[in-house]
Specification:
binds uracil; globular; Uracil-DNA Glycosylase, subunit E; 44% helix; 10% strand; 2 domains; alpha/beta; 15 helices; 9 strands; single chain
């Protein structure tokens, strides 16, 4: 493949995971995309392409902070495409383990999402617990939070939530959707999967993750020896955004209390978010998926693991391996939590 085309694809994939900067050098992805589109000098563009080709071939060296990253950084610098300075501490490298906590000091209190009310023994925020062998990420809320007087605290079953969702008019999405998609699965599930929003097949059927992404999600769950029936599957948004566009802040604000209430009722031992959007919403962060992966975050005491969205894996099969690693982590955390209870 033409190196520029390869670079363009690569950068678009990074942008899809929530990254905005080109890993180390404070260039925005949009800027580099403009460079390779020929808006800057071709020398600079080729240097960027060469640098990124190295990154594509050796992404793990960037992740681990391996000294080998110096090669492509200096290529970029020599080409005048990037400043020599290191990225500031506030902009951690993808895959670094500590900065997530430092950019998102614990505990984080989401401004607009109601608090959960499911204290779990041994799940003190930031404290030692059954998952302490894992690297801790963002801690949202305290495990012993009291019930927030949300509009849905009176809904005392998943069934009641589903019925309310089906007649919900809190945001305009109900008007363009065919069916609401509240979620489905075991009400006593130990693991809850959270996606972004229903797509076309889900809108048609009223069931979450039943299209191509859903088939892949089923396989991902099977890889960790879980069936769809024994987990609970839902989304941040319960109605499909037209044309699968990104959810708007007002829609998240209106809809997320349903998700919170579902989590309160199911009280899973582990939450797995699929895709940038679900992770950033529950963890109340703008950190990219690369920064959030590989860590065990805490959502009001419950371990939360983030991974790629199955739809992203369909576009980029290279993400299957890291997804496998993420769900294996979720499995280990689940096993550990089960042993502790
Ligand atoms: N993508 C999602 O995030 N959720 C679904 O239910 C289907 C596709």
């Amino acid at each position: 493949m033409d190196p520029r085309e390869q670079l363009r694809t690569y950068l678009e994939q990074r942008r899809e995971t929530g990254e905005t900067e080109l890993v180390l050098d404070k260039l925005s992805i949009d800027e580099v995309l403009r460079i390779i589109a020929g808006e800057a000098s071709s020398a600079r563009g080729s240097a960027v392409a060469a640098a990124a080709a190295a990154e594509i071939e050796h992404p793990s060296s960037v992740r681990s902070g391996d000294p080998g990253t110096g090669d492509w950084r200096s290529t970029l610098r020599d080409a005048g495409a990037a400043p020599a300075a290191k990225p500031p501490a506030a902009e951690p490298l993808p895959g670094e383990q500590t900065p997530v906590a430092s950019t998102d000091p614990a505990p984080v209190k989401p401004p607009s999402i109601p608090r959960l009310a499911f204290p779990q023994p041994g799940h003190e925020a930031g404290g030692p617990d059954e998952a302490s062998e894992f690297k801790t990420g963002i801690v949202v809320g305290a495990a012993d939070s009291e019930l927030f007087r949300s509009p849905f605290s009176h809904l005392d079953s998943l069934q009641a939530i589903a019925e309310t969702v089906r007649s919900c008019t809190r945001c305009p999405l109900y008007a363009t959707a065919t069916n609401a998609v509240p979620g489905e699965g075991d009400p006593n599930a130990d693991l809850v999967c959270v996606g972004e929003a229903p797509g076309a097949s889900e809108d048609e059927t009223g069931r979450p993750f039943v299209g191509e992404s859903g088939k892949l999600l089923t396989k991902i769950l099977e890889a960790i020896k879980l069936s769809r029936e024994e987990v609970f599957i839902c989304n941040v948004l319960k109605h499909r955004p037209p044309g699968n566009r990104n959810p708007l802040p007002g829609e998240v604000e209106a809809c997320s209390p349903y998700l919170i209430r579902q989590l309160e009722i199911v009280r899973p031992k582990v939450i797995v978010t699929f895709g940038t959007f679900a992770a950033q919403t529950l963890l109340n962060t703008k950190s990219s998926l690369s920064q959030l992966r590989g860590l065990v975050h805490r959502y009001y005491g419950t371990p939360l693991i983030v991974t790629y969205h199955p739809a992203a894996l369909l576009r980029n099969p290279a993400w299957k391996r890291p997804t496998w690693n993420d769900v294996q982590l979720a499995r280990r955390v689940l096993d550990s939590a089960r042993q502790g209870s």
